[in-house]
Amino acid sequence: MTEGIPGGAEVVVDARGLRCPLPVIRLAARARDLPPGALLSVLTSDPAARHDVPAWARMRGHAVVGEEPVGEEQQDEDADVPCWRLTVRLGPAS
Amino acid sequence: MTHTTDSPTASGPAGPAPDHTASPRRAFLDSGGRAPWHPLARQAFLQAVDDGWADPRRLHTEGRRAARLLDGAREAVAAALGARTEEVRFTASHTTALHAAVLGATAARRRVGGDVVVGAVERAAVLHAASDAAALHSGTRRVVPVDRSGRVDVEAFARAVAQPGVALAALQHANGEVGTRQPVTAAHEAARAAGVPLLVDAGAGIGHDAVPDAWDLLAADPADWGAPAGVGVLAARQRVRLTAPWPEDADPWAPGGVSVPAAFAAAVALQAVAADRAEQDARRRALVDRVRHTVSQIPDVEVVGDPDDRLPHVATFSFLYVDGEALVTELDRAGVAVGSGSACTAATLEPSHVLAAMGVLTHGNVRIALDRSTTGDDVDLLLAVLPGAVARVRELLGVDGL
């Protein structure tokens, strides 16, 4: 299993257009199948997710390692809502 | 005899006040900023409807009678706040009092500068007014961060007020959403040393908690202590310069005049709640402790706000993987009225700026503010239905083993 670990396939959950708490739920569902240390990103247009992904990570022992606005090319053609990409490194399995 | 809250005058002025929590099937636990009327507030309001309906600025007998009620109300509120009568003004609402304090104090100090220092979890009215004031006077709104419990970094606050060009600083007495008290005494010392007036928003605390005498401007909210909405209180020490932010009016702090019955009821209710505040503090603090402890046993919950240094009647918690709007609706169906700071319960997509600034979970949020009429049975009803309501919402969202 190389998904999400350095050198392996990047794991991205596309939660754009979903509102709280769905981005966190999608992220958590994907995290369940990944090994400790894996990098997992979520794309979100929900302003609440920018607060809730870090809070979820803290509650679950993961670490937020990146937050960046998503560039135009990654957004839907007619979408004018701002989007973010939040990346977490998964902690040890509980 | 029957009476309902829909026809409050059905039993007449002398009749018993409606008990908002009498029904075994409803527990109203969302009293922050709009509490059920205190029985004496209702009595005072009805008396003032009869005696104080006239315009208190007129010189006839009816007008003078209304003016006497208004003057008495001002005197009583001032005494309860530890202020001189002439330092207290009634406004149209708590929000208006905050707007007037920020805009009025910054306008009077515009020669000093245009910066406004605010805590990150101040009420939206303070944050918006601070932005407007800073923009008007070519300054900047400087936001001082809070810790995970919602308490402002008092050293950062002191450093910010000591900078040149600060017209006003604002720090709430306690946060009405999460209950955490703020270090207003230390903040006031720092502001005084810098020669900057400090506005203390005591809207969530007056009537429930002892508010330290550490302010230059103070705003208080009658609707929060069991008086009718439609009136606010702004106190300013006599040394503080203020310029009313509105066009000239005979009543510069409440253009058009205030509601005499609302102001009179506010004063009577404030005296009443001050009389048994210690007793109500202990009683409600114990209920909130019970809520905090029991809720923390539910899986994946974050109970937020300072566990000890807080308002006696406020509790807030967030459930992971729960939709706040669905949870509020589910609880309401089960007979329990609660508030929420989750984004999905607001008109905007933005969650509570308070929860966001604290770095705690914003979704699945429930906040309660216990009234003096709230009973142990009301709290027990919440605690009985909450685990099932959370489980149902999680089930609907397909959350399993996350």
Brief summary of the model shown:
By secondary structure, chain A is α+β, with helices and mostly antiparallel strands. Chain A contains two helices and four strands; from the N terminus they run βαβαββ. In chain A, β1, α1 and β2 form a beta-alpha-beta unit.
Topology record:
The complex is a heterodimer of chains A (94) and B (402).
Chain A: E1 11-14, H1 22-31, E2 39-44, H2 49-60, E3 63-69, E4 84-89
Parallel strand pairs in A: 1-2
Antiparallel strand pairs in A: 2-4, 3-4
Chain B: E1 27-28, H1 39-51, H2 61-81, E2 88-91, H3 94-108, E3 115-119, H4 124-136, E4 141-144, H5 154-161, E5 166-170, H6 184-194, E6 198-201, E7 217-220, E8 232-236, H7 260-275, H8 277-295, E9 301-304, E10 314-319, H9 324-333, E11 336-337, H10 353-358, E12 365-369, H11 376-396
Parallel strand pairs in B: 1-11, 3-4, 3-5, 5-6, 6-7
Antiparallel strand pairs in B: 2-8, 7-8, 9-10, 10-12
What does this structure look like?
The complex is a heterodimer of chains A (94) and B (402). Chain A is of the alpha+beta class. Chain A is built from 2 helices and 4 strands. Chain A has a 4-stranded mixed sheet, with helices on one face. Chain A is globular, with a radius of gyration of 13 Å. Chain A starts with 10 loop residues before the first strand and ends in a 5-residue tail after the last strand. With 402 residues, chain B is α/β, with parallel strands linked by helices. Chain B is built from 11 helices and 12 strands. The longest helix of chain B is centred in the N-terminal third of the chain and has 21 residues, at 61-81. Classes of the chains: A alpha+beta (94), B alpha/beta (402). The interface between A and B is medium-sized, with 19 and 27 residues.
